[in-house]
Amino acid sequence: MSGLFDVEGKTVVVTGGTRGIGSMIAKGFAEAGARVIISSRKADACESAAAELSAFGDVVAHPADLSTPEGVADLAAFVTRTFDRVDVLVNNAGATWGAPVDEFPLSGFDKVLGLNVTSVFALTQALLPQLRAAATPDDPARVINIGSIDGIVVSGTENFSYGASKAAVHMLTRKLAATLAREHITVNAVAPGPFPTKMMAFILDDPALKSAVEGNVPLGRIGSPEDIAGTAIFLSSRAGAYLTGTVIPVDGGMSGTR
């Protein structure tokens, strides 16, 4: 039992790892003894986040714009140069867009679906050789896609492309899980509810709005870094080795009790 949740020495890639949920997950893995690569579109954000997270463990960063094929190829090449294998790939990088239905631009679908869905497939595909190198029957390689409860339940905000993209991430997760299971690569998704991220800042910085959000969560609070990092570590450890094709809502009961 002492090693059931152990991820020490594992090699982990976290996209969108410089802030928000990605940073929470990267910090958790680093503190647990994993070797972590984080990525983000902005070089200065990568440099700053790597310096901050390195205080907790072995973390390096590489800037890459995953909305482009060139960015995906560049990050995959860096990972290949740095790690001889990838034990865990966390596809977290994403974007959102909000506008009233009459004004919502088609570009809001192109940008969001491209980064939130297409890049998830493209990077997973590009890193398959490194995932295969890590995979064994008893200790599969892991792909963890970050979805959202907005892909499970209807959001109260005008984020038409975001919710659609996250529902697509959940189905892509299942399809990849079915395809890669025989190669001992598990693919699961985590669907977060409200967490203290930049996306939620405009709500959580307002005491009245924050109180309203918390009041809508059955457990009565927003998520903490430990909640999301713990779920990712569980999926990456021996404890989670027999799960694939799952979508785990980490939302305080918002999607599961209604």
Characteristics of this structure?
258 residues, alpha/beta, Rossmann fold, seven-stranded parallel sheet, 15% strand, globular
Biggest beta-sheet profile:
7 strands, parallel
What is the total number of structural domains? 1
Can you identify the CATH class? Alpha Beta
Low-confidence stretches: none
Count of individual beta strands: 7
Spatial arrangement of strands, main beta sheet? 3-2-1-4-5-6-7
Give the distance, in angstroms, between the N- and C-terminal Cα atoms.
35 Å
CATH structural architecture: 3-Layer(aba) Sandwich
Computed over alpha carbons, the radius of gyration is 17 Å
In sequence order, what are the helices and strands, one letter per element? EHEHEHEHHEHEHHHE
Question: What does the average pLDDT come to?
Answer: 96
Oligomer: single chain
Q: Percent helix among the residues? A: 40-55%
Our estimate of the beta-strand percent is 15-25%
CATH 4th-level superfamily: NAD(P)-binding Rossmann-like Domain
CATH fold-level name: Rossmann fold
The rough form would be described as: globular
Give me the secondary-structure category: alpha/beta
**Count of helices?**
9
